[in-house]
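YM 10:42: Glutathione S-transferase sequence, as discussed on the call
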Amino acid sequence: MTEQAHSTQGSYVTAGEEFSRDTTYITTRITADGRDGFPVEAGRYRLVAARACPWANRVVIVRRLLGLEDALSLGLCGPVHDARSWTFDLDPGARDPVLGIERLQEAYFRRFPGYPRGITVPAIVDVPSGAVVTNDYAQMTLDLELEWTAFHREGAPELYPEALRDEIDAVNARVFRDVNNGVYRCGFAGSQRAYDRAYARLFDALDWLSERLAEQRYLVGDTITEADVRLFTTLARFDAVYHGHFKCNREKLSEMPVLWAYARDLFTTPGFGDTIDVAQIKEHYYVVHEDINPTQIVPAGPDLASWLLPHFREELGGRPFGDGTPPPPPPESERVPPDHSPLPPP
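YM 10:58: structure's back
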């Protein structure tokens, strides 16, 4: 983190209230038949993400696993933002080199002038018009899996198999409510009662997941699916951020044997850990959430080397990519800096 003042001028906690996430997103879809006016086309769209954001991280993982790098370009915002928008401060001149904009807000306003909701990542932008198409992250990954099949790499895994969709959807619903969003409900609670309720639901769900994963390698079936992607991005941030910053402190992930081994198994699977930038994750949460961390001091720990300890999950069987193959290493331009990750360079 650079030694300069950064103010979000935003508030994430409402005194006396539970945290309630605004889940109204731009639901336009990019589909093979183009029924919403945006057909799947290689090179037409740009995925705008941020390494820090768990919701964006999901889409980056799925894009990697399916091999869509050449069909769907990736723009990365920096780890901090202000009350207005995510910004492209990592790029030369602080502008996205493809869209030519400094703030993601510009793409939202190009389609919806004065857009009144949050300027969120991930977002997919139509490059010719410069206008946002969608920020509906939950549907976004499903569409990459089901609508973009013409551009999947050879050996791409089936992340949302038809026979398992009902079970995947059921698992995802609880994981979203009590884990993905549950950590935020703890961290942004505006009262002791709201926090206590969120804390209990979070750890009840983590105990349920531990029991589920004690005898099976992956959440649904014997291969990696959409369900594993959605859980992983929260687990990857747990000890570095949620345990302390969000007060999710019954125990660390590294003190939950089953979930810790499961998370390490995925972390060392190509397409997962190679998308995780721990330095950006910590900078985002500890700097942006000023009402939780007014000093904006970013903690030095935890030690990341333990992510590479043997996990022994292969003893449970399972085939990570099913009948497919692992993705190749990420393009050089998309690699996480070596000092931000415990993984060895590709």
